[in-house]
Structure formats: C-alpha cells, structure tokens
Amino acid sequence: MNATSCSRWVLGLMPFTALVIGSACGGGDSATAPPSDGFLTDGGGGKGGAGKAGAAGGLINPDGSVAGNAGASGQGGSAASAGAGGAGVDAHTNDVSFNYDAPVFDAELNQDSACAQATAEAKPMPLDMYLMLDVTGSMGSDCNVGGTTASKWCRAINAVAGFVQAPSSNGMGVALQFFSTAISSACNGNVYDTPAVPMALLPGNANAIIASLNSHSPGGNTPTEGALRGIAKYTVGAQTPGRVMIGILVTDGSPTSCNTSIPALANIASQHFAATGIRTYVIGMTGANFGNLETIATAGGAPQHANYCSGAANCHYYNVGDGDPQAFIDALKQIQQSAIACTWQMPTSDAGLVDPDKIKIQYTPGGGGNPQELTRVTDASQCVAGGWYYDNNANPTSIQLCPDTCTTVQADTAAKISVLLGCQGT
C-alpha cells in the first residue's frame, strides 16, 4: 500500500477479529477486503485507487465458504466508489456494532495534542571543557601532582588532577592550556587557541593532563586578553554536535599585559557567548580582583549561584581562595553540573517525526503553581527572561535555556521542565 495518501485504523473488536476502516489509497493500489471468522454479516468493496479497481467485498468463514454475498468491486479511476456490500447469512446470530471517535487534532499544542502525550525525556548533554590555567609567577612555587608545596600552583594542579581522575568526570571531554607571557605574549589568542593537551574523553585523557601539569612551572605576567581570545577561538572550532562546550578561565590576578580594560575583556566573553552560545566560566584564587571576575563571568554567560562567592549572596564566578583542592574540585563539579543542567538533547518520539517548530517548553515551579510556557528565541543573542533557543534552528540537536531562565531553574531544586512535542503532519 502506498504510504503517500493512505491512512488505516485497526480496531480490535474481539479475539482474533479486526476490521479495517477507510482503507482508501491513491496512486494505484487496490484495497482488499479483510478475512473474517464469520462474525460479521456484510462485506464491503474497497475504494479503487487511481487506475485500479477496488477488490470485491465479502466475508469468508474459516472453512472457506462465503458467509455473505460478495460486494461489487469498486471502479478503477481517480474517484472510484466503494463496492456495495452483499447481504449474507452468518453462521452466528451475533451482530457487532461500535462507535469510533476520531482523534482530535488541536490547532494549539498542549498536553493532549502533543505527539508524545506526556513530558518527553530530555537527556542531559555530555560536556566538553577547555581549561585555561594561569601559570604566571604569582602562582608561587613549582611542584608536581601529589606534592605538598604550600603554593597556589601546587594546590591548583592537585585539584585539577583530582577532578579529571574522579569517576564523576568519566565521559567528559577535557582540553588543557596554560597562559602566561612566558608561554606567549600574543594578545590575539594565537597559541592559546591550541591546547597543550588536545580534547579527549576522561578517564583516558587524565594521564596526559597530569603529565602536562607536571611539565609546567609558574613564571611571567598575565595576558588575560590572549587567554580569553584563545578560549573563544578554540571552543567554537572544537564544538561537537550533541555535546556542550564551555571554556573555563582560572586566574589568581588582574591582567598585566595586552588589553587590561575589564569592560574590553568582558566584551570578548560576551560577544563569544552571543555568537555561539558557548559559556565562559571563571575561577579565581587569592590575589584576583573578584569584582573584575564577576564582570567577565557574567558577560560570558556563566549562571548565577550561591557558593564560593566571597561572602556575597550570589555571584557568577567561583572563589577558591588559595587553591584549596577540595574547594577547587567542588567548583569544577558545580560548573560541570550547571553547564549541562540547562541544556538537553533534542528529544525524539515514537509517535512521529518531531517538528522543531511545534515544540513547547513549560516550567512548573517546585513550590506549586501553574505551568509557565517559556519563550523561544532565535539564538543566544536574543535571550530574554523565560527564554530558550536551539543550537541550530535548521537542524537542532539541543535545547538551551537562556541565562536568566537557567538561573531560575537551577535555583528551584524541585522545578519541573516539560517538553511538549509536536509531530510533523499533526
């Protein structure tokens, strides 16, 4: 049967009995009458498709005899009519009647008309991160992973090593680079846009990361502009469909080379986020100006949170003090969780091919209240409170909440997000 213009509903009436309703095909296939066990009394001819006659109706008993007279076959052609049903005598006296309510196709998508009929399962996206680590002279004395030297550098590399070796990081992609004028004075991001350790999945990449941490020593000044531009260039080029990409800047000081204007540096992160949807997170250590880091982190799309905020109620950066490994690991884990908490894989439905233009997102507050429909925007640059967008409007692979929406949802630990699917053809 051609699928292009045929529709068929099968209703179970009793054991081993079925009736085909409205089997009308265009494009040349003939409709055939279904077999029967003799429970029905009349047969009906099918409608003929264009160029072919519909089959004669009739009801066949299990022993092969005709229970009713065969209906006349439908005439072939572009508008054939159904053959008339023959009047027959059934071996049984039972008559069968039923009522059939056709499906309701609402113009407005809601829980009843969504093709999934329920909240879709929106799975978190796997995460890739580009870690840009300050290795300037202010980080203090050198050491290797596992060492106990009392310096920010030693604590920081122990924390990074602990994070990449943690089972909770398995499956995450990590690339690593270091920034200092001792490595490069390039303010345009060159050198910093190429990781010292290429992106690969954990735990397999952990040993390469630890070896690279051990091979670097603090020295030089702080080219924050070069580091931020390197993050922007690398992350956009290394972004993989179906995975979330973020950048993380780790620093213990203010910029001392290249452009040192905080608004200018924040603009790099802001433009990158607006153009790509890739967030830049910031981890600061003792010696950093946390007001400056807050400006950069906010511009980079990092969500607001309430931990490691230098005494403030909320912030967008993370302050890990002198590099305390536990605080550092906690900050990295929170970044890991927040980065994927507001990004989901594009859902699918076995009820049909999902139409991206018919998807709706609803947020139900954890404290109760009516579901709130969120607003779809074209991309990250158009974000509004209560907004969301696709990673690619033409061929979306993920759903992303806007920063303010993400903050609201993350702060509501009992929040419920519903994804209503509208299917193509509904």
List keywords for this structure.
426 residues; disordered N terminus; 6-stranded mixed β-sheet; 4-stranded mixed β-sheet; alpha/beta; 15 strands; globular; Rossmann fold
Overview of the molecule:
The strands form 4 sheets. The chain has a 6-stranded mixed β-sheet with strand order 5-4-3-6-7-8, with helices on both faces. A 4-stranded mixed β-sheet has the order 9-14-13-12. It has a 3-stranded antiparallel β-sheet with strand order 11-10-15, with no helix packed on it. With 426 residues, the protein is α/β, with parallel strands linked by helices. The longest helix has 17 residues, at 325-341. The protein has 7 helices and 15 strands. It is globular and about 60 Å long. A hairpin with a 7-residue loop joins strand 10 (360-364) and strand 11. It has 3 domains: 1-102, no CATH class; 127-342, Rossmann fold (3-Layer(aba) Sandwich); 347-420, no CATH class. Helix 1 (152-165) packs antiparallel against helix 2 (206-215), helix 1 crosses helix 6 and helix 3 packs parallel to helix 4 (262-276). The chain has helices at 152-165, 206-215, 224-238, 262-276, 290-299, 325-341, 403-411; strands spanning 9-14, 17-21, 127-134, 173-179, 197-201, 244-251, 279-284, 318-319, 343-345, 360-364, 372-373, 375-376, 387-390, 398-401, 416-420.
**Alpha carbon gap, first and last residue:** 21 Å
Give the number of DSSP strands. 15
Give the number of domains: 3
Low-confidence stretches: 1-114
Return the CATH topology of the largest domain: Rossmann fold
Q: What is the topology, as strand order, of the major beta sheet?
A: 5-4-3-6-7-8
Any idea what the radius of gyration is? 32 Å
CATH class of the largest domain: Alpha Beta
Spell the H/E element sequence. EEEHEEHHEHEHEHEEEEEEHE
Q: Give the averaged pLDDT, no decimals.
A: 76
Q: Can you tell me the overall shape?
A: globular
What kind of sheet is the major sheet?
6 strands, mixed
